[in-house]
Amino acid sequence: MKTDMNKNISSPFDFDAESVVLGSAILEKKAMPEVAQHLRADMFYYDNHRIIFAALMRMYNGRRDIDLITVADELRRNNELEKVEGPYYITKLCSQVVSTVHLKEHCLIVKELYLRREIIKGLTQLLGSAQDMSMDIADVVCEMQELATRVEKDAVKADNLRNMETLMNDTLTQAKGRIENSANGVTGTDTGLTDLNKITGGWQRGDLVVIAARPATGKTMFSLFLARIAAKTGINAVFFSIEMQGERLGDRLILMESDVSPYRWRTGMTDDKEWNEAFSTAESLAELPIIVDDSPSMSMDYIRAQSRMLKSRGKCDIIFIDYLQLSDMKGSVKENRNREQEVATAARKAKLLAKEMDCPVILLSQLNREAENRYGGKPQLSDLRESGAIEQDADIVVMLYRPALYNIPTDKDSGYPTEGLGVLNIAKHRNGETGNVYFSHNKSMTKIGDYTPPMEWLMKQAK
Question: EC number(s) of the enzyme (predicted)?
Fold first, then answer.
């Protein structure tokens, strides 16, 4: 390994490793698939090596034969042969090859040195940004997270290629785990609602669950209900609140858990009895494994970084994000993306977060106004605001709907009276059935539970 001492900070590279990799790819037919799996042209340090590898990739992707003569011809036709010092240099590369037995190891050497150069380059730029007092510190942190994400993406060594024997063994192991952990059919995180558990089996690891509704329908209250239920079963919940201050979430949690009047609590008119109950409730809630992050500006990269840190400490089993359209999408602006593409990118990152953290991600989302133009305001998948990619990336899409808000006395699908009735329309379920789940709630949505029709309605139906 050598270093470039002409720069302020040395950049590691290995001429011999790069030469052997390129020479092997030219001489050995079976070498190119291995090399293409690990390397890109920009991973080579020398310009002429980048040019030669780019030519090899063009030929490989075009299914053309690769040897000394055809590579030289490809470079000549692209006016690049002289840039790499002519046919002599290609022959020189091939003369470096003694054996291709250790080709994979040579590829990994080239890749590792590329990653080290990228880290050195990125940290040098970050140092300059950190010293530039005109730069917003949040932008510096974002730049740091982007560097880590970019380098990590190339550094991952996990092998996702599995033969059928391995895949079947892994599948049976996972199925056995579901059987052992099943509690009345719930194999994931308890949702707190019997019918929702029946359809989903609980929130499953690696799933992106989108809960969508119009503003003021109760998305935040419902997600807090889910977080509280999860925490009560010992699940570590992380709640990223982009919309509300943490204290407002604390208010709602206290009201959920106690009998304090929401109006008197909000207006500061609680009496001593209610205050004592609220204090006792707060002490009880303090024991729950819930972490709240109410940073005013959060990107999906920030959420990922925080989640990874908490996961490493064993404090991240389920993630809630409130809500998608408010997430910071500055990174996309640099790439001149429109709003729909920004939201699509954020939704995709949320799905990747669920897979990487191996936990459920509950992502709240706004619906557009089309639902309000429809009789009864009942939402549909097409109402997902600003991007159809949300539907595409989600494993489950739940439409939260409260028909009483639209002055509808009776729910059309169930025939239930709408007072205190909430509807969860499971509009998409990648691994199971869809349908409606009904839940009960009070006017402030601080009390949520399984729905039982009123006695008057039941008696009327019996007649």
Answer: 5.6.2.3
